[in-house]
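Side project, low priority. Logging it here so it doesn't get lost.
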Amino acid sequence: MIQETGAPEARSDHHIRNFSVQLSPTPRGARLARLLATEQLRTWRLPLDPARQIVAELAANAATHSRVPGRDFRGTLYVVAGTLRIEVTDTRGDLLPCRQGPAPDAESGRGLVLVEALADRWGVAQAPHPRKTVWAELNLVPEPEPEPEPKPERGSSCFGARGAGVEGLPRGEEAASEGVQEGCQAACGHRP
């Protein structure tokens, strides 16, 4: 079951966006959590990384370490006041995660180390029995709008710098015109 609230086009700091999905605690469910979260972040026009990596780690932990047959886990994304909160709730409230350094040759055990490195904050909250929620927060930096490419105007020193005015110039002035063309290229991207 997927739930979403909040309009994706609303960009106010006071607007709350929410996405939640309930999945089976299996490797497939963990992978689906990452894919659905990635698609939701795209819809909201938010940076994909490191959020999708955090979702992947928390969902994998829920599917691997907190699996209870017949009980699903829930992945939730919230955006409130410039903060993205990622939550994964499972049904093993008795098994609290703790970050520990894995052996150098271990093939797993680095999930919470990665979450701690990628997130601005993370933690665990007890939920109604028998659940717990592992959460991580990322401070969002708004992506700047791309600036339109400047277009030269007639009469500017840049317009027509493709060589139109160079042909009839005496030799010394031709070299000066090349300097104007190079300056134009550096200033506004216009290529002679």
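Brief comment: The radius of gyration is 27 Å.
Revisit when time allows.
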